[in-house]
Amino acid sequence: SYVLTQPPSVSVAPGQTARISCGGNNIRYKTVHWYQQRPGQAPVVVVHDDSDRPSGIPERFSGSNSGDTATLTISRVEAGDEADYYCQVWDSSSDPNWEFGGGTKLTVL
Amino acid sequence: QVHLVQSGPEVRRPGASVRVSCKASGYTFTNYGISWVRQAPGQGLEWMGWISTYNGDATYAQNLRGRVAMTIDASTSTVYMDLRSLRSDDTAVYYCALPAASGTGYFDYWGQGTLVTVSS
Q1: Per-residue pLDDT tens for B27-51?
Q2: Residue B89 C-alpha from the chain's centroid
Q3: Quick check: helix, strand or coil at residue A51?
Q4: CA angle, B98 as apex, A58 and B13 as ends, to 5°?
Q5: Would you say B19 and B82 are in contact if contact means Cβ atoms under 8 Å apart?
Q6: CA distance A20 to B32
Q7: Whether A100 and B46 lie within 8 Å, measured CB to CB
Q8: Radius of gyration (Cα) for chain B, nearest Å?
Q9: A30-39 pLDDT, tens per residue?
Q10: Nearest C-alpha of chain A: how many angstroms from B75?
Q11: In chain A, what residues touch B112 (CB-CB under 8 Å)?
């Protein structure tokens, strides 16, 4: 299986920039997606295909992918951004086909 | 508008089985397969498997093979996930999720989740 490694927690003050990493062997060759999950709710995709944003997701959310690390960047962090964030990749030839990172708890100080 | 509506919470004894349903609407059911993802309390997301809603072919996560089965009822646009020989560590919220039409492997629609509690 393909292992995705995320830091358990990231803390940032309101208005600052949060960066959440997702490490994987040659992850640059994978397509990475990011989800936000608030307590008691289903995950919501905030960035897909490395850096694309679904409609309705603020421009403050952006993604990048190079080398062995993909990164979700949240600019001008707001209190409402406090949530768990998961990276995810898909490979039809791997087992499992879908893989999630362990998740990162974003705390807004 | 796409909707995935799941069945209600379940409580089971260890060793029992459970069935969770996911009724899809708002799109052509047979065009896109559906995955199941679970989340144990306080833990991360775990992909369980995927089923083709076109022909019912399924693929399962290795750690669940032999205990999980996914089926479809195309007449009602419903997908079922059966998990047997339940253990306490199967206690989790179970989600059905629809991969995006783009085919790049992200889930753009999720059910509301079904809590399955396994306890003696």
Answers
A1: 999 998 999 999 999 999 999 999 9
A2: 17
A3: coil
A4: 115
A5: yes
A6: 31
A7: yes
A8: 14
A9: 999 999 999 9
A10: 27
A11: 42
